Amino acid sequence: MGRRSKHKQAAPTPVLEPAAAKSSGTVRSGGRNKPLSAAGPRNPGGAAAASGSASKGKRKATDAAPAAAPAAGKRAKAAPAREAASAPPKAKAGKKGEEKVERSMMFDSEDEAGDGFEGLESGDEDEDAADEFDLGSDSDDEGADAANAAILSEGEDSGIEYEDEDASDAEGALGLAESGDEEGDESLVEDAEREEEDGIDLDNLPAKGTKLTERQKKKMRAEAERLEELLKSQGLALDSDEEGGEEYEEGSEDDEEGLEDDEMLLDGEEGSDDEEGGDSASGEEGGDDFMLPTIEQREAEAVQGADLQVVQMRIQEIVAILGDFKRLATDGRSRSEYMEQLLDDVCSYYGYNAFLADRLLQMFPPAEAIEFFEANETPRPVTIRTNTLRTRRRDLAQALINRGVTLEPLGKWSKVGLQVFESSVPIGATAEYLAGHYMLQAASSFLPCIALAPQPGERVLDMASAPGGKTTYLSALMQNSGVVFANDSNKARTKSLTANVHRLGCKNVVVTNYDARAFPKVLGGFDRVLLDSPCSGTGVISKDQSVKTNKSERDLQLLTHLQKQLILCAIDSVKRSGGYVVYSTCSVLTEEDEQVVDYALKKRPNCKLVPTGVDFGREGFLSFRERRFDSKMNLARRVYPHTHNVDGFFLAKIKVSPKVKPTAAAKAAAKKADESDESDAPAIEPESDDEAAEPAATAADTSLFNDEEDAQLIESAKRRADKRKGRPSGGRKSGAAAAA
Ligand SMILES: C[S@@+](CC[C@H](N)C(=O)[O-])C[C@H]1O[C@@H](n2cnc3c(N)ncnc32)[C@H](O)[C@@H]1O
């Protein structure tokens, strides 16, 4: 990744993966165009969270950058949590004010340029240009591209830099300075500053005489070498004999001093052991390498409470060691011991329960997992979706700009999205909002609708639709024709769904209130079905910190069982001649994503995965731990907060063909899928009134499933519920139980 880009705000990213993933994340800090946040981190759920993430929440409110662990190659500026917690949260406010002016100026100057988004105020653009932000034709595509390109080319001024510029950045970064001229010097200073942030944190260098670990020494030597390389590439070698040395002459004293300092630091109390900076990280000497805490130390920490600063440092050390275990693990402890400590530390530092922290640590390599946890401490940018039933994006943008809103197009991948950077008015209460010109909608939540691609005149089912962000988008994509059945099992939530449908002027929507497992019995024959499934919400922790602590293994089992039932109903609701189902969740856990889709494919051999039409994000997993998934699962898409600066999200598109007589192999696969689902299935009822879990215990019509297992589960759940509420048990029987 280009180093410059790190300092600029990432828009929700049109980034192709896996390249983006490898680039260690796109969520970047402190650019001038820091986006308006959708929601501040909420109060963490548990006691641990209170100590851990509450303070982190504050810190992050002032600094949008997820501080990646050093092993991610970034060497995060590890501001001590407590110190940072007291950082003034309004520090950026003044900057934002300036930003607003800058952004407006950007649009103005683009007006003069006369293409793309810049036509906003001019009003004299030709029809083609005026259509640029409408849905539809290829030329529109080009127009939108041009608009974005114009903005992208403003990268330096606007402070916005998209991920796909990073490659050229990386190449260009070192060629910035013409040696000797002022510009060059400035660039060099900037580079050096960047080095500080990217590499060794000069603000937080250990005090002189501090004893450094071998690994720290090694890092510093490597950093020194890198700086030397950089200087050389600028024609400013450290060696004053070399050409160009003169220009460096002035600074050389300082630098020599600096080097002395470095050396003193490197030497610590013991004196330098290798001037050449050779590899001495093996830890044979001195035994001053990182050591995992002993059992006694862990017990003491458990009793006294952990010092967050210590825990944070330890997380970084462990992540670095796990990244190069053979070389860096010098205390004879096993990898699993390191993982165990990391799990403990993640729980106490970020405030997750052990179950979820463990699941998430399994999802990513350790360094990336920390990036994910960090990203969950900062809100995602506010995004809105233009309601094309009422207005055009350019008109909406102009209207909001006139109200003092700073915004820009979301990215090439969306013709209707806008990212809001700053607003002097509440974005959920403008006249345009009330008039239904836009929906406040997370960028990820556009994706399933894009994937479903409903056509005008079609019959569409949105199975779990409240509060209607996707329903209203589907309606707009269908240009208010055909029909969208917008269903949700939660009656209270259908009220906000209905309100949104009205506000946005969706005339082709019918709201229904069923447990979606009642489909296709109540209604079937759909061209397309969206199942935006109830889920654990592990992709939206930045919006709801309670997810960190309120999910247990049992909740997950209940959810996945429900999800599997729902996806079969979605498939069965497609018309006989075939159609499409999009399955999506805002969870990143494979149990709720690939595993559910895989189950459905095995149970319904007339289905196959097809491309989502969303060309960014990571591919779905083909396997995860001991599980193997459908060979086309790579067509599914995953997006993450730490790689795309959007809510974590999963989507898969399934083509449903007319039913065929299942082959023996298909039957065997379906049976196997059932068995595996049974082993995953919940053994006990949910205790909470958790919205997502509720339907599992109150299934309206389980006769859809001639599944004894289901019937028994529901029956025993009801018995237990009766018992808990003091009702005589056995007095009632569900339809399913009766049928069974
Ligand atoms: C992820 S939210 C849907 C968000 C919605 N698609 C949107 O874009 O605004 C999941 C929804 O599923 C609903 N739900 C949970 N269990 C359900 C069930 N068995 N049948 C139908 N809806 C259900 C919840 O009430 C919740 O509104």
From TrEMBL:
<feature type="compositionally biased region" description="Acidic residues">
    <location>
        <begin position="675"/>
        <end position="693"/>
    </location>
</feature>
<feature type="compositionally biased region" description="Acidic residues">
    <location>
        <begin position="121"/>
        <end position="144"/>
    </location>
</feature>
<feature type="region of interest" description="Disordered">
    <location>
        <begin position="1"/>
        <end position="290"/>
    </location>
</feature>
<dbReference type="Pfam" id="PF01189">
    <property type="entry name" value="Methyltr_RsmB-F"/>
</dbReference>
<dbReference type="InterPro" id="IPR023267">
    <property type="entry name" value="RCMT"/>
</dbReference>
<dbReference type="GO" id="GO:0009383">
    <property type="term" value="F:rRNA (cytosine-C5-)-methyltransferase activity"/>
</dbReference>
<dbReference type="InterPro" id="IPR023273">
    <property type="entry name" value="RCMT_NOP2"/>
</dbReference>
<feature type="active site" description="Nucleophile">
    <location>
        <position position="586"/>
    </location>
</feature>
<feature type="compositionally biased region" description="Acidic residues">
    <location>
        <begin position="179"/>
        <end position="201"/>
    </location>
</feature>
<dbReference type="Pfam" id="PF22458">
    <property type="entry name" value="RsmF-B_ferredox"/>
</dbReference>
<feature type="binding site">
    <location>
        <begin position="464"/>
        <end position="470"/>
    </location>
    <ligand>
        <name>S-adenosyl-L-methionine</name>
    </ligand>
</feature>
<keyword id="KW-0949">S-adenosyl-L-methionine</keyword>
<feature type="binding site">
    <location>
        <position position="532"/>
    </location>
    <ligand>
        <name>S-adenosyl-L-methionine</name>
    </ligand>
</feature>
<feature type="compositionally biased region" description="Basic and acidic residues">
    <location>
        <begin position="95"/>
        <end position="105"/>
    </location>
</feature>
<dbReference type="InterPro" id="IPR054728">
    <property type="entry name" value="RsmB-like_ferredoxin"/>
</dbReference>
<keyword id="KW-0539">Nucleus</keyword>
<keyword id="KW-0690">Ribosome biogenesis</keyword>
<feature type="compositionally biased region" description="Acidic residues">
    <location>
        <begin position="239"/>
        <end position="278"/>
    </location>
</feature>
<dbReference type="InterPro" id="IPR029063">
    <property type="entry name" value="SAM-dependent_MTases_sf"/>
</dbReference>
<dbReference type="InterPro" id="IPR001678">
    <property type="entry name" value="MeTrfase_RsmB-F_NOP2_dom"/>
</dbReference>
<feature type="compositionally biased region" description="Low complexity">
    <location>
        <begin position="37"/>
        <end position="55"/>
    </location>
</feature>
<dbReference type="InterPro" id="IPR011023">
    <property type="entry name" value="Nop2p"/>
</dbReference>
<feature type="compositionally biased region" description="Low complexity">
    <location>
        <begin position="63"/>
        <end position="91"/>
    </location>
</feature>
<dbReference type="GO" id="GO:0003723">
    <property type="term" value="F:RNA binding"/>
</dbReference>
<feature type="compositionally biased region" description="Acidic residues">
    <location>
        <begin position="154"/>
        <end position="169"/>
    </location>
</feature>
<dbReference type="GO" id="GO:0005730">
    <property type="term" value="C:nucleolus"/>
</dbReference>
<keyword id="KW-0489">Methyltransferase</keyword>
<feature type="region of interest" description="Disordered">
    <location>
        <begin position="667"/>
        <end position="740"/>
    </location>
</feature>
<feature type="domain" description="SAM-dependent MTase RsmB/NOP-type">
    <location>
        <begin position="372"/>
        <end position="657"/>
    </location>
</feature>
<dbReference type="GO" id="GO:0070475">
    <property type="term" value="P:rRNA base methylation"/>
</dbReference>
<feature type="binding site">
    <location>
        <position position="488"/>
    </location>
    <ligand>
        <name>S-adenosyl-L-methionine</name>
    </ligand>
</feature>
<feature type="binding site">
    <location>
        <position position="515"/>
    </location>
    <ligand>
        <name>S-adenosyl-L-methionine</name>
    </ligand>
</feature>
<feature type="compositionally biased region" description="Basic and acidic residues">
    <location>
        <begin position="211"/>
        <end position="231"/>
    </location>
</feature>
<protein>
    <recommendedName>
        <fullName>Nucleolar protein 2</fullName>
    </recommendedName>
</protein>
<keyword id="KW-0694">RNA-binding</keyword>
<dbReference type="InterPro" id="IPR049560">
    <property type="entry name" value="MeTrfase_RsmB-F_NOP2_cat"/>
</dbReference>
<comment type="similarity">
    <text>Belongs to the class I-like SAM-binding methyltransferase superfamily. RsmB/NOP family.</text>
</comment>
<dbReference type="GO" id="GO:0000470">
    <property type="term" value="P:maturation of LSU-rRNA"/>
</dbReference>
<keyword id="KW-0808">Transferase</keyword>
